[in-house]
Amino acid sequence: MRKLTYFVACSIDGFIGDPKGDASSMYQFVTEEFLDFLKTEYPETVAAGGREALGFQDLENRRFDTVVQGRGSYQLALDTGVTSPYGHLREYVASRTLGESPDPNVTLITEDVPGAIRKLKAEDGELGIWLCGGSQIAGELLDEIDELVIKTYPQVYGSGMPMFGSDFAVTDFALESVRTFDNGALVRTYSRKR
Ligand SMILES: NC(=O)c1ccc[n+]([C@@H]2O[C@H](COP(=O)([O-])OP(=O)(O)OC[C@H]3O[C@@H](n4cnc5c(N)ncnc54)[C@H](OP(=O)(O)O)[C@@H]3O)[C@@H](O)[C@H]2O)c1
Q1: Sorting pLDDT into bands at 50, 70 and 90, what band is 67?
Q2: Which of 121, 129, 184, 193 is the most buried (most CB within 10 A)?
Q3: In the chain, what are the domain boundaries?
Q4: Is residue 124 within 8 Å of 99, Cβ to Cβ?
Q5: 11 C-beta closer than 6 A to ligand 1
Q6: Which of 107, 160, 165 lies closest to 141, judged by CA?
Q7: Ramachandran region of residue 151, left (φ > 0), alpha (ψ -120 to 50) or beta?
């Protein structure tokens, strides 16, 4: 069984972006030490443009071979003319409005998103599935999430786009590891308690 991992950047108070989802205030924390961590442990989570700029393009995927995005998150790439932001992974995008996939590497999920994810999780393979976000799709997939990797940057947003766009419900996770960075960033890994 492959794991679905929500690997996401957020503020101290659990927002993944401003009310519209913009997380650009967090970029300043992606310093040399943090980049080194990404390069060693999660190089596949850097999108195409960044991979090229950072010289990551020949790095092997370490944790994931598949990425799942909501159309809201994918739209950020489309708006810059990029149809396959994670071409080094199998890309799945949930959308009822796109109609047809803009890219041969992108498979649309148009209905029963949890069912589609369960099928991906049931496939054989050593690498896992990265749930990229955003908030709405993460809320819909909360029951399917096996692991959280939360990059927390030392900022409070007060309000904004929550990590999960879902109704109140308590879901238990166990802390597996915490990594701290000189700039105050934290990366916490939690596994789902089932
Ligand atoms: N901080 C981070 O690490 C991080 C990571 C990722 C994203 N983000 C931010 O998150 C924001 C986007 O989040 P969001 O909550 O607005 O959108 P989202 O969750 O990325 O996407 C929502 C869209 O997914 C589709 N969808 C949702 N449920 C579906 C279902 N059951 N069946 C089929 N399609 C479904 C719909 O697309 P259609 O409208 O096409 O039907 C819906 O509009 C972006 O601004 C981005 O910056 C932040």
Answers
A1: very high
A2: 129
A3: 4-122+140-178
A4: no
A5: no
A6: 165
A7: beta
* 177 bridge partner residues: 189
Regarding beta strands 147-152 and 173-180, do their DSSP bridges make them parallel or antiparallel, or are they unpaired?
unpaired
Work out the pLDDT band at 8, boundaries 50, 70, 90: very high
Q: Is the pTM of the predicted complex or chain greater than 0.90? A: yes
CATH number of 4-122+140-178: 3.40.430.10
Cα dihedral 81, 50, 75, 79, rounded to 10, equals -30
**Burial classification of residue 124, based on how many CB atoms lie within 10 Å of its CB (0-12 exposed, 13-18 middle, 19 or more buried):** exposed
- Is the CB of residue 132 below 6 angstroms from any atom belonging to ligand 1? yes
Nearest CA to ligand 1 atom 38: 95
pLDDT of residue 121: 98
